[in-house]
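User: I would dearly like some help making sense of a protein record. I have put the entry right below:
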Amino acid sequence: MVAFIPGMELARDFFEDIVEPLLPGALALSAGLIGPGSEVLGFDSEMSTNHDWGPRVMIFLSASDHGRAERIAEVLRRDLPREFRGYPTNFSQPDPDDKGSRRMQTVSGREVNHRVEFLGLNRSRIGSPCRCSD
């Protein structure tokens, strides 16, 4: 069993240790985690890990970098480690029977279906983070 790590700490470390070094230089961005979720409010616990929780981050790109998001997402699908601090970096497709919830899933394939989301500064989603089939 993996020792529980608060989600915001996990997200920060995932970005700083893993995601940021894979990003191309001279990319105008901010990173964070906002929206619904117990970890965003600091109320997460081991129970929170059952859905919509795990190594994830939102990257906010400047308008001039929007066109680079899909290519960067491809690099991350290929180059992210399969797990970070004992938690899978791969997630299920959204479950339509559970309000679109996504769960961490171990993967052995070449690519990970990550939760690194690219957004414009107005929070509009850029591209689709869910493209892997395994």
About this structure: The first helix runs from residue 7 to 22. Residues 7-120 form one domain.
